[in-house]
TrEMBL record, chain A:
Gene3D superfamilies assigned to the protein according to its UniProt record, in alphabetical order: P-loop containing nucleotide triphosphate hydrolases
Lineage of source species: Bacteria, Pseudomonadati, Pseudomonadota, Alphaproteobacteria, Acetobacterales
Ligase found in the keyword field: no
Species assigned in the record: Teichococcus vastitatis
Family: Belongs to the ABC transporter superfamily.
Protein name per the record: ABC transporter ATP-binding protein
A Pfam family of this chain: ABC_tran
Keywords: ATP-binding, Nucleotide-binding, Transport
CDD domains membership: ABC_KpsT_Wzt
MF annotations from Gene Ontology: ATP binding
Automatic annotation (TrEMBL), chain B:
Pfam families: ABC2_membrane
The keyword Lyase is annotated on this UniProt entry: no
Residue ranges annotated for the ABC-2 type transporter transmembrane domain, each copy included: 20-226
Similarity-based family: Belongs to the ABC-2 integral membrane protein family.
Protein name as catalogued: ABC transporter permease
Membrane topology category: Multi-pass membrane protein
InterPro entries found in the cross-reference section: ABC2_TM (IPR013525), ABC_2_transport (IPR000412)
Bilayer-crossing regions: 38-59, 71-88, 118-139, 151-173, 180-198, 236-254
Upper taxonomic lineage: Bacteria, Pseudomonadati, Pseudomonadota, Alphaproteobacteria, Acetobacterales
Subcellular location(s) of the protein: Cell membrane
Keywords: Cell membrane, Membrane, Polysaccharide transport, Sugar transport, Transmembrane, Transmembrane helix, Transport
Organism: Teichococcus vastitatis
Length: 215, 265
C-alpha cells in the first residue's frame, strides 16, 4: 500500500514561497490502477518525485508499504561509463535479484546485441532508452510509477513494452501520470485530475478525462 | 520470452548490506574503469604521492632517531592521512552528488556514504599493505603490532567517515561549506603529525596538538609499526569519543538533510 496524507510541497523561490502541492490525499493498493491527469505546470513532476520517494513532502505524511518502481524508463543511477551488463548487475544487486537471470532478461529485452557489453556512453539515444526500459521491467515491483513514457523505440519495441506492462500490472499497483489519454483509458481503472495542487477524484476514468479536457 | 527475475524476501539488515554492496560494486567498477589495468590506476595515485614524498625525504637525508627507516616512516605516515583527506573530500560530496540514486527507494544517504568511503578505505589499506610489504622485503621491517596498526588505520577511516557525513549534510543547508573543505583538509596536514613525532616537540606544543584526535592515531600507528624505537603520545578514549561523536552527529545530520534535498534546485 502507498498512502499520502495531506501532502504539501512548497518551494522557496525568489518571489517567495510557492505551494505546488496543497494537500494531496491518495491511497493505492496492489491491483489499483490510478491515472493522474494534469495540465502543464499543475505540479505533475513534483508529485512524481514525491510518489517516487526521492523528495520528501514539506508537510503531511507518506506511508510506503510496497516497493514502488522508479519512474518507468528513467535512467536513475545508471553509470554511462559502465556497460549495459554492469548496469543490469547493479540493479540486480540493488533489488536482490539473481544476477544471471537479470542479465539474461535485460540482454534479451533490450535487443542491444554486442552493445550490451559496451559502455552506455557509446549508445545511441534509442539504445539507451531500450536499456532503461529493460531495466525497469527487470524488477518485479509491487507498484509501477509511470511518468508519461510507457513505451519507447519503434512500433515493434513499443508494443513489446506495452505487452510486458499489461502482464505486470495484473497483480501490481499502477500510478500513471500522463498526458496520453489513450493510455490512461486503457490501463487505469480510476483517475484523478491534479488541479490547484490537489487531486480531484472522479467516478470513472471517462469522467475524469472529460473534466481534464474541460480545463 | 526470458523469465522475469523474482525478488527474494529479506530482513532489514540483510537488505541494507545488499544495497551497500550494490553501491560499492558500482563505485568500484566506475573508478576502476572497464579496462583490466584499472586496478593499477586506482592504486597508482596514492602510491605515487606516498612514494614521491617519502623518497624526497629519504634522499634529502633527514635522519630520524633510533635508525628508523626514512622512506617507510613517511610512506606510512602520509598514506593514512591521504585516506582521511580523500574520505572527507569525496565523502562529503556523496550527499549532493547522488540525489538521482534516491529514486531507488531502497537507497538511503547513509548507504551512498558508506559505499563511497568504504571504497576509499580499501584503496588506502591496500596501498599501506603494499608499503608494509616493501618494508619487509627491502628494510626487513616487520610491523611491531600488526592488528593495532590496522585498528589505527580503521580509526582514521571512521573519524573521516563521521566528518564527511557532518560536512556533507551541512552542505545541503549551507552551500558555502563546500568551499571550506579543501582548505580545511589541507591545513589539517601540518597539525596532524603525519610526518613528525610529538615527542620531538616542546611540552606546550605537544599538549596543544593532542587536542587533534588524528595526532593520537598517527602516534599510535607509528608505535604499532616501529615499536619502542618511538615514544608515542596518544589517548585512545579521546579518539573513540571523537569517532562516536562525529558519527552520531553525522547520521543525525543526514536525517536532517534528507527532506531538504531537492532535484529542482
Amino acid at each position: 500500500m502507498l498512502e499520502l496524507r495531506n501532502v504539501w510541497k512548497s518551494f522557496e523561490q525568489r518571489q517567495g514561497r510557492k505551494d505546488v502541492l496543497r494537500g494531496i490525499n491518495v491511497r493505492v493498493n496492489r491491483g489499483d490502477h490510478l491515472g493522474i491527469l494534469g495540465r502543464n505546470g499543475a505540479g505533475k513532476s513534483t508529485l512524481v518525485r514525491v510518489l517516487a520517494g526521492v523528495e520528501a513532502p514539506t508537510r503531511g505524511s507518506i506511508r510506503r508499504e510496497m516497493l514502488i518502481s522508479w519512474p518507468l524508463g528513467g535512467g536513475y543511477g545508471i553509470q554511462s561509463s559502465l556497460t549495459g551488463r554492469n548496469n543490469s548487475r547493479f540493479i540486480a544487486r540493488l533489488y536482490g535479484l539473481s544476477l544471471s537471470q537479470t542479465e539474461a532478461f535485460v540482454e534479451d529485452f533490450s535487443e542491444l546485441g554486442r552493445y550490451f557489453d559496451e559502455p552506455v556512453k557509446h549508445y545511441s539515444s534509442g539504445m539507451r532508452s531500450r536499456l532503461m526500459m529493460a531495466l525497469s521491467f527487470a524488477v518485479d515491483f509491487d507498484g509501477y510509477l509511470v511518468d508519461e513514457a510507457l513505451s519507447t523505440g519503434d512500433a515493434r519495441f513499443a508494443n513489446k513494452c506495452l505487452s510486458v506492462f499489461e502482464e505486470r500490472r495484473q497483480n501490481a499497483a499502477v500510478i500513471m501520470i500522463s498526458h496520453n489519454l489513450n493510455h490512461v483509458r486503457r490501463y487505469c481503472r480510476t483517475a484523478a485530475v491534479l488541479r490547484n495542487g490537489m487531486l480531484e477524484f472522479y467516478e470513472d476514468v471517462d469522467e475524469a478525462i472529460a473534466a481534464y479536457q474541460g480545463l | 520470452m526470458v523469465e522475469i527475475p523474482r525478488r527474494r524476501a529479506m530482513s532489514g539488515a540483510r537488505a541494507q548490506v545488499q544495497v551497500v554492496g550494490a553501491l560499492f560494486m558500482r563505485e568500484m567498477l566506475t573508478r576502476f574503469g572497464t579496462s583490466r589495468i584499472g586496478y593499477v590506476w586506482l592504486l597508482a595515485e596514492p602510491l605515487i604521492l606516498g612514494s614521491m614524498i617519502s623518497l624526497m625525504h629519504a634522499l634529502s637525508g633527514s635522519d630520524l632517531p633510533n635508525g628508523l627507516p626514512t622512506f617507510l616512516f613517511y610512506a606510512l605516515g602520509y598514506t593514512p592521512f591521504l585516506m582521511f583527506r580523500s574520505i572527507v573530500a569525496r565523502g562529503s560530496n556523496a550527499v549532493n552528488g547522488n540525489i538521482s540514486l534516491l529514486f531507488h527507494n531502497r537507497i538511503t544517504l547513509l548507504d551512498t556514504m558508506i559505499a563511497r568511503n568504504l571504497m576509499e578505505m580499501m584503496v588506502c589499506f591496500t596501498v599501506c599493505l603494499l608499503f608494509i610489504l616493501l618494508g619487509m622485503l627491502i628494510f626487513g621491517e616487520l610491523p611491531h603490532q600488526p592488528a593495532l596498526l590496522v585498528a589505527g588505520w580503521f580509526m582514521s577511516a571512521l573519524l573521516a567517515h563521521g566528518l564527511a557525513m557532518v560536512i556533507g549534510s551541512a552542505m545541503v543547508v549551507m552551500e558555502w561549506v563546500e568551499h571550506l573543505v579543501h582548505p580545511f583538509t589541507y591545513l589539517m596536514m601540518p597539525i596532524s603529525a603525519p610526518f613528525y613525532m610529538i615527542d620531538m616537540l616542546p611540552q606546550g606544543t605537544q599538549e596543544m596538538l593532542l587536542w587533534n584526535p588524528l595526532v593520537s592515531i598517527h602516534e599510535l600507528n607509528r608505535w604499532a609499526m616501529f615499536g619502542d624505537r618511538v615514544i608515542p603520545h596518544y589517548d585512545l578514549v579521546y579518539v573513540l569519543a571523537w569517532i562516536i561523536g562525529l558519527n552520531v552527529l553525522g547520521m543525525a545530520g543526514l536525517r536532517m538533510a534528507r527532506p531538504r534535498l531537492s532535484l529542482s534546485d
